Amino acid sequence: MDHAADAHRTDLMTITRFVLNEQSKHPESRGDFTILLSHIVLGCKFVCSAVNKAGLAKLIGLAGETNVQGEEQKKLDVLSNEVFIKALVSSGRTCILVSEEDEEATFVEPSKRGKYCVVFDPLDGSSNIDCGVSIGTIFGIYMIKDGGEPELEDVLQPGKNMIAAGYCMYGSSCTLVLSAGRGVNGFTLDPSLGEFILTHPDIKIPKKGKIYSVNEGNAKNWDGPTAKYVEKCKFPKDGSAPKSLRYIGSMVADVHRTLLYGGIFLYPADKKSPNGKLRVLYEVFPMSFLMEQAGGQAFTGKQRALDLVPKKIHERSPIFLGSYDDVEEIKALYAAEEQK
Ligand SMILES: O=P(O)(O)OC[C@H]1O[C@](O)(COP(=O)(O)O)[C@@H](O)[C@@H]1O
Ligand SMILES: [Mg+2]
Ligand SMILES: [Mg+2]
């Protein structure tokens, strides 16, 4: 009998107990992070429930219209943003919030302030909402400098300074993947209990994968190293098998598959978008943080992604992330290009 697997089956670990266990390893901790996280979890459950009803919303009124009760239907990304802002402010543990949906950062009023800054994409993959394909929420957490007044500089920090990051994927199941800097763990929502249960303990990405994931429709505008890399995936010259292509078009879902199965996810720069498409603070950093924690790598085409120092809250960057060996290959191609 596989005792490890058996123990895992019988030990029902909820996300709350998991985080409390982690907290107890730090006697100085006052539980602020646990409280913040419980509010993030609440936001995820709320959005999950709204996503599950998204198709039905058409029956009672389309987004932007009024439903039969005369209430205005909110677009799912607007609704998700409001849910997370409320959940985070009411935790009493946050001071600065940066959301993809808001042009400016939100500074929490002093009476409700705490020491954490949260950057988030409340609904990632929004083009997939109407066809029922997996979408998600991405978040990263920084801590402000001790005692100081919160300033924008507190979030304009390199990703390596994040103290935690994660995402929740609203797919065939609702899965929350989290790292607080000591490995990566995945929890699946049991809808009947309303609890996230540890289902993917200590996730490690395979060292090399068989899948590449990129929007190949942009190929005509790629730079040399990206084009060469994708060519190598399809027509390897070293006798290995070609990689398979999988591309969902929701970063959360594409990165989740990459984390579990291995391989590489690319959103490169191209002639039309020299900085790529994905946003540094709440897309590139949290996913890069998770990848490194799981044993993979994340690279911008120039440097380790987590070393980037963003100058603006909605800054973008190219990103290549995934299995260690696969990212190593693309790094070599960019290094060779620089030598030219
Ligand atoms: O359609 P494209 O250009 O391939 O872009 C897909 C990417 O855009 C995104 O949908 C952007 O995220 P938002 O939906 O939060 O704007 C990512 O999830 C995804 O990786
Ligand atoms: Mg997004
Ligand atoms: Mg979004």
Automatic annotation (TrEMBL):
Q: Reaction(s) catalyzed by this protein?
A: beta-D-fructose 1,6-bisphosphate + H2O = beta-D-fructose 6-phosphate + phosphate
Q: Name one Pfam family in it.
A: FBPase
Occurrences of domain Fructose-1-6-bisphosphatase class I N-terminal (ranges): 13-201
GO terms assigned for molecular function: fructose 1,6-bisphosphate 1-phosphatase activity; metal ion binding
Q: Which GO terms describe its cellular component?
A: cytosol
The EC number of this protein is 3.1.3.11
Q: Which GO terms describe its biological process?
A: fructose 1,6-bisphosphate metabolic process; fructose 6-phosphate metabolic process; fructose metabolic process; gluconeogenesis; photosynthesis; sucrose biosynthetic process
Root EC class: hydrolase
* Signal peptide positions on this chain: none
Give the UniProt keywords, A-Z.
Carbohydrate metabolism, Cytoplasm, Hydrolase, Magnesium, Metal-binding
Domain Fructose-1-6-bisphosphatase class 1 C-terminal as annotated: residue spans: 205-334
Which InterPro entries does the protein's record reference? FBPase_C_dom, FBPase_class-1, FBPase_N, FBPtase, Fructose_bisphosphatase_AS
Per UniProt, subcellular location reads as:
Cytoplasm
Instruction: Report the cofactors.
Output: Mg(2+)
Record bears the keyword Methyltransferase: no
Query: NCBIfam families from the xrefs?
Result: PRK09293.1-1 (NF006778), PRK09293.1-3 (NF006779)
Give the HAMAP family listed for this entry: FBPase_class1 (MF_01855)
State the family named in the UniProt similarity comment for this chain.
Belongs to the FBPase class 1 family.
Instruction: Tell me what this protein is called.
Output: Fructose-1,6-bisphosphatase, cytosolic
Q: Which organism is it from?
A: Olea europaea subsp. europaea
